[in-house]
């Protein structure tokens, strides 16, 4: 049987911009499938904007058939108003994956950084550098939110491999 | 043409319990179509729970074909952690409606109370009483979250009628 690899969808939710990164692991090597951002129309009401995120995720899932997904754990120091907004976009991402039977892993932001760079407090630029390096891309041309989503997808693949090796 | 009435879906989102209330307005009179709660499995991860809410809403929408929806505006005094959770359930409700092209009205909690009872600070029991009264139900047997969702649906119908009358 041909090894089509394991396809993982990483998500960096936001009501304005949601980053996505789809990565395939084939023979232990991560490769880029697709990445980008979902931008919601700022002048529309929140429900319409959440619908835009959902519909685009449905399209991406149909197109690329990821079998697992990953997202960052909640960052709790935000103020309640922005926390609700962030929560809304997170809920949409979760529902889009769950309704397509795609299990979702959650990783703390420091865990993602530590996984990719080795240091939980690594700056964003270093994480972005490692994302491109892991995927073998010399001149990445994706926006920051897309890079963050790719980082989560790669972290999930690494953690998954580790769990398999250690039998956890 | 027969008047099948306007069917509205009211939602009271929560990660643990989401209340729904489906009301039909026919010849200026609100009548109950369906109401209840969506309970999510507490032991499952958040994404799975959000999927349960989404799938159940999809089912309700398919079954009852609401043409408009309504939800309470964000309540901002919660702490960031519960605000994120509330936001997640809200996002799922919004996406479920938007992906089915159901426009959603948002009303502040005090607006809903004022609309039904006449006083923005009315106690929950009084709102529940008016919900049952508006729907012509003598002995309501639904839980509080369902009643809250029905209140939002009825508020939406009333506000809608008012807007139509005043041409706003």
UniProtKB/TrEMBL annotation, chains A, B:
This is Crossover junction endodeoxyribonuclease RuvC. Binds 2 Mg(2+) ion per subunit. Transmembrane segments: none annotated. It catalyses: Endonucleolytic cleavage at a junction such as a reciprocal single-stranded crossover between two homologous DNA duplexes (Holliday junction). It comes from Pseudodesulfovibrio portus. Belongs to the RuvC family. InterPro entries: RNaseH-like_sf, RNaseH_sf, X-over_junc_endoDNase_Mg_BS, X-over_junc_endoDNase_RuvC. NCBIfam families: ruvC. Mg(2+) 2 binds at residue 72. Homodimer which binds Holliday junction (HJ) DNA. The HJ becomes 2-fold symmetrical on binding to RuvC with unstacked arms; it has a different conformation from HJ DNA in complex with RuvA. In the full resolvosome a probable DNA-RuvA(4)-RuvB(12)-RuvC(2) complex forms which resolves the HJ. It is found in: Cytoplasm.
């Amino acid at each position: 049987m041909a090894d089509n690899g394991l396809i993982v969808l990483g998500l960096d939710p936001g009501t304005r911009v949601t980053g996505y990164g789809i990565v395939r692991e084939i023979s232990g090597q991560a490769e880029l499938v697709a990445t980008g951002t979902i931008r919601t129309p700022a002048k529309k009401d929140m429900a319409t904007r959440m619908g835009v995120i959902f519909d685009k995720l449905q399209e991406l899932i149909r197109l690329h058939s990821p079998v697992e997904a990953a997202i960052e754990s909640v960052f709790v120091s935000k103020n309640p108003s922005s926390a609700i907004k962030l929560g809304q976009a997170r809920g949409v991402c979760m529902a889009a994956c769950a309704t397509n039977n795609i299990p979702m892993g959650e990783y703390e932001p420091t865990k993602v950084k530590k996984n990719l760079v080795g240091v939980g407090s690594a700056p964003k630029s270093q994480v972005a550098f490692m994302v491109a390096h892991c995927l073998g891309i010399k001149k990445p041309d994706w926006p920051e939110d897309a890079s963050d989503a790719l980082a989560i997808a790669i972290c999930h693949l690494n953690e998954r491999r580790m769990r398999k090796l250690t039998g956890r």
